[in-house]
Each structure stands twice: as structure tokens, then as C-alpha cells.
Amino acid sequence: MQASGAFQSQSQSQGQSQSHGTMQGYDPSNFFCEMLRPGQPQHPTLTLLLSRLAALPIDSLRRRAQDAERDLLERGITFTVYSDATAIDRILPFDLIPRVITPAEWHLIETGVIQRVRALNMFLRDIYHERKILADKIVPAELVLKNAGYCPAMVGFNVPFNTYVHVCGTDIVRDETGTFRVLEDNARTPSGVAYVVENRHMSLRVMSDLMTSLRVRSVDEYGLRLHNAMAEIAPAGVEDPQVVVLSPGIFNSAYFEHVFLAREMGVPLVEGRDLTVEQGKVWMRTTSGLAQVHTIYRRIGDDYLDPNTFNPDSMLGVRGLIEAWRHGAVAIANAVGTGVADDKAIYAYMPRIIQYYLSEEPILQNVETRICGEPDALAYTLDHLHELVVKPVAESGGYGLLIGPHATKAELADFRALLRANPSNYISQPTLKLSVSPTLCADGVRPRHVDLRPFAVTGKDTWVLPGGLTRVALRPGSLVVNSSQGGGSKDTWVLA
Amino acid sequence: MTTIMPAPHKVHLIARHAEATIWLARYMERIENMARILDVTNTFARDADDTRNWLSIPRINGDLTEFYKRHTEATQRSVGEFYLLDQSNPTSVQSFIAAGRENARTLRALISTEMWLQINVFYGRIRALPAETITPGHFTSACSMLKDGAQAHTGITEGTLYRDQAWHFYMIGRYLERADQTTRLLDTRFHSLAPQSEAVDADLDAGQWNTLLRAAAGYHAYRREHPSGYNAQEVACFMLVNIAFPRSVGLNLAQVGRHLTQLRRRYFLRMSPALERLDQLSTTLTVENVSELTGRKLSPFLDFVQREIGGLHQDIVDTFAG
User: Fold this and answer.
1) Is A145 domain-assigned?
2) Which ipTM score applies to this complex?
């Protein structure tokens, strides 16, 4: 572990970066700091950035932060929070101090994510066809076949390039030794990419003087790459395929991101009511009549896509869409039934899944994970509850999880009962000492925990957007970075 | 040797988006019109309790029933409350901006970022209008803020909205709304001020003509065209037929026709029902015809024009609703 001693010696070698200006009083203590990075080789761009930050008066940073916040609200770069009767547009709080990734680190993340996406797609292909991995007992069959995300309608159905997960968001954290670890895979409809690009634009607006001549990799290519992947998977023989983004509509909390995706790809943003299936094909209602649609990048969950196949009450979907898809008349991204692959129970097997299909060691490690459905794991988890993070396997958004070290005795006792009642619903992991990044707080620039969600786009091949969404837990000591739980975000700079 | 040209990439417009574009333009235009009428009434009403003048605004909008459900008397305060602050009144600027913004939100991937940003900020400003807005000291500045915001929207749209199908629909919405608002304005004034008989027309006092023309931003132009004074027929012709006056019904309908034709020629949209209706309507908007419509004959004609404008909107929407 890097003790604060290492940090102090580094601070001396860098001059007085923490003794004045913006960084005054900043002390990451024994957490790995993404900016000071104890024990890692220095990168000249980073050194320059740090000296500029140090020279910046904190009042200037605060003024810029206010500008940024107002700008985000005015631009409507917001997500909508619904309570009983009201809808409030909230911004995802933006912290101006970037999270930095060196070229060597990015190489590791990029190759690791590509490897993981390959394995996820091969796993999905297998479990919907030969099921070799189940026959070989690498992954318990019932864990897959009885999984809520497993979709029987997908059995035997082939998708172009065997790509199921066209857009994947891989949540990565860094422990106190500086080792990157995958926390979870998001293989359904991962969100947040709009913030990656908007955060960069914001940095360019309010931090342009700090960015001068720094070589940071661009994030502008996402829309183009995504569109080209969507065009690749379109039905064969279509020369200029029509791609659309399918959204639940303006009242969806992630609507801004849907707008962003449509705009960046240059394609229509449609709702279910704009589409119709006739003569086995999918059409959109345009001013000049029906026009054929070839690829749908859908931001609607599986259950709502087609009332004929799934939830019959869904008003959001398109009747007959799945059948048209199964007949090859249209492509849908991400494919239906990918939820089984990003399930927290399957996650525990990912290292073995990678080895099984690729005969490679995982480039990115998992967090050590226990499956509470297994008796030994349950016993261990119950014994060590106060030092573990326990997560329900079916939830997302940071809900329903227990962070042992932060829980009261009563909370621990309650959770024990939950665990005993339904052990297979939970996994447990050691409490991570997540890395921190300097973040503007009420009392100055302070260390706050961060994670990283890179976005991988896969048609025929996989491309990873340099960087990704850095989420930051703004509450002191908090490990929960989700926007619904007091999280914010940072611009993520991959140095060139 | 024949060369086969590649087919140009065809950019489709979702039918629902075309309709939302028309509505976006109409709602933003309504805000400007409402601000104009309130401002001019405020300036030229004899005082804050000049009921006859203040009542003309609910009448213009066909809101008398709704208005009297909430207020007993038409004053600056009650009419201001009804149109500037009341979020539950669907014809208040509060409701217009909410509806405008919702359409803009629907179109957000299509309109320019600047358009969205300005509407979003404008929305925040209108929603934040305080209770003292409707007091004499604040009334005019609130109206100015609304006019400024609506005109900034118009200017930003002119400068940033890409000229494809959606733009044509936007312009159709704007011009339909302007034409409609002008008929309403003309109707109330003639209706409330005048004339139970043709002889009274000439007695309408100059101040009232001023109010009417100023509300439509036509006062100075009218003075230039008719320096010798007011005449009911001339005012009616100015507002209905004159194709140099930006808010005249004739000019706005001509613009609608131009955009419909573009949609038909460039994008091969079936616009014949709307174009036919427009042709017929235009034949009635001549100096000869309007000059005969003095006194009580004007109002039914204006009702007819309003119905036809509504019909045009419906014809356009119907061409791609099926």
C-alpha cells in the first residue's frame, strides 16, 4: 500500500504543488490518487497540468465551477428526476478537475475491454446455441438458464458477426495498489456516453487555459463510430442503411442522451409510435410516407420492445418488431437477451469465461467475488459482513447494496436476515479502497473516490472511446458514484 | 454513354416531428403576440381599471368563459394574472412556453443547439415571473422581456436552423400563427370599438386605431401609407391584404404558400389539399373584397379566415398522418 509518506516525498519532488493555490491542503492519505499517482512513472503532460492547477487560485476554480453548472442547466444537459407530482431537471454535477489516464494505462484498459467484450459475445453466442460452456460445467447451467436476463426467444437465432453487445460499458475501479479491476459489465443499454463528450466540451469552454497545448485524445469520434457499427450490422445488401435511435420519449430520465446519440449519428430519434411493421419489414412514419428502417439502436429495455413477444402492455415498443428481426429484416442493437451476460452472478465467472473461450488470461482483473448461493461463500459472507460489500444480483443504480464498514449493527443484522432468506440473490466482495481524484469541494480541493466506465462499440470489430465516463462520489468518504446517489462526473483525459 | 448518378442520400423527416415543428413555431409566435397585445393595452388603456380595453384580450382569444371562471372583472391585474402568471390557463404565456419547450424537447435532435438553449433559458425566465409582474411598475418590463425572448428565438432560428424540410414546416407554423393572430386582433378591435352601424366607423377615435396598429407593429408604416388619417376600410386592408406589412394576413398566407410549394417541389410531399384551400382563401383577400366588409360584415369574414387557417394546419398534418 502507498502510505502518505510516498505522497509527501513526491510532493517535494514536484515543488509545492499541494501547499498553495488550488491544491492547498490536498491529501489523498492512503488511497491511490489518479492525479499524483504515487510510485508511477511521471508523464510530462500530467506534471504540467498539476503545476497549472497548483497555480490556479481556488476562487477562480469556484467561479468556473459556477459557470459550468449554470451552463449545464441552461443547455438542458440534465436527467429528469420524477417524484410524486413533479419532474425536476437535474444536472449530473460536473467536477472541473479532470481524471487523467496515461497512455500505458489506457493501453491496458483498451485491450482489456476489447478482450472482455469478445468473451461476452462468445458467451452469449454459446448459451443461445450449443451451450458448450454449460456442458463443460464452467458456468452452472441453472445460473444461466434460470436467469431473469436469459431470453428463450434468442435460442438458435444468429446475429451479424456474432455481435450481441454492440455497445458495452465496463465499470472499472482502481484499488489502493493502483490495479484496475472490473466492477461490472453493462451489456444491455449502458448510459453515460453523452456526458463523456459534453464534459469535454465543458472543459474546453471553462478550462481552456489549463488545456492549452496539452495533448489529450479526442472524444469526438463516438457518433461516427457508432453509426458505422450500426450500418455494418444492417441487413445484408442494403447500401445506405437507415439507422434510427429508439427512445421511450421525452419523459425518460435519460432522454438527453438519446438526443445526443441521434444528433451525433445524424439519424432520426424515434419513439415506438413512429415505427410500424408491415410486410415483414420495419418502417418509420415520415412526411412522405413509410420509409424502411434497417438498424435500430434501441434505448428501451427488452421487456418493452415488442408487446407481441414481451410485456403485452408496453406502449413504448413496436408490435411485430422481434419477428421482423428474427427474419433478418432489421438489426437491433444491443441484441435482446444480453442481460444474462452482465448479471452480477455471471460476473463472478467472467475470468473463467475469458479463459474458456479465448485461452487467454484476463487483462483486467475482476474484484474478488463470492457467490452467496454457494454454501462456503455464504458462510464467509455472513462471518465477514462488516467488512464486505454485498450486492443483490438483479439491481442496478447502486440500490439495495450493503457496505459493511459503513453499516450500523442494526443494518448488519437486518441484512443478515435478507441474506439467509435468499442467498442466491447476492454476491459479496471485499470493500475496495477505491482510488481518488482531486475534486472541488466546499472546503477546498479534496480526494473523492472515482470509477471509470469506458464505452466499447462493436460491429464487426470493437472500438473503445478513449477515456470514458469518470463518476465521482461527491460525499466525503462515499464509495457510491451513481448519479441517483449523490454522484457526479469528471472529464476523462487520456493523454496522447 | 449514359452516366448513372448515385441517388442522393435522402434525409427523412419523422411525421410527428414535422407536426411538432409547426407547433413549436406557433407557440413561440403566440408568446410574442400576447406580449404585444398586453403591452399596448397597458400603454393605451385609460387606466388599470379600463375594463372595456382589458376585456378585449380575453375576447380576442375566445377566453371569456374561462376568464370569468377565475376573475370577476377585467383589469390590468386580473388580465395580467390570467395571461402572464396563471400556469393553469392554457392560453397564458406560462402554458405557451411550456408547450413550446416540450415541442422543442421533442425536436432537440433536429433543431440547433442554440435554439434549444435559448428556449430553455426563456422558459426558466417566464416560469420565474414574480407576483409583482402584474403591478403597474413591472407590467411593461415583463412584456418587453417576453417580446425580447420571442424575437431572440425568431432571430436564432433564422440564423441557425438548417434549411431542410423541418425549416419549411417551422416557417409554415410561424406564418399561420401570425395570420391567425392578426385576424383576432382586428376582430376584437372592430368588435369592441365599433360599430353597430356603418356610420359609426368614422367616429372611432384615433387612439383606438393607434392601439390596434401598434399591437401589430404596424403603426408607423400605416402612418406613412396613410398620412391623412384613419379609415376603417384602409385599416382592414392594411392588416388583411397589404403584402408589405409583416403581420398582414395576406403576406403571411403568401409565405405559407411559398413553403408549401417548396415542400412539394423539393421533397415531393403531397400538399395539394392545403394548396387548394390556400388558393381559395387568397382569392377572398383582395382590396375590392375587403373594402366591402365594413362594420358588421367584417367579423363573420374574420371568423371564416380563422377557420380556414385552422383548416390549413389540419390539411398539412393530415397529409402525413395516415
Assistant:
1) no
2) 0.91
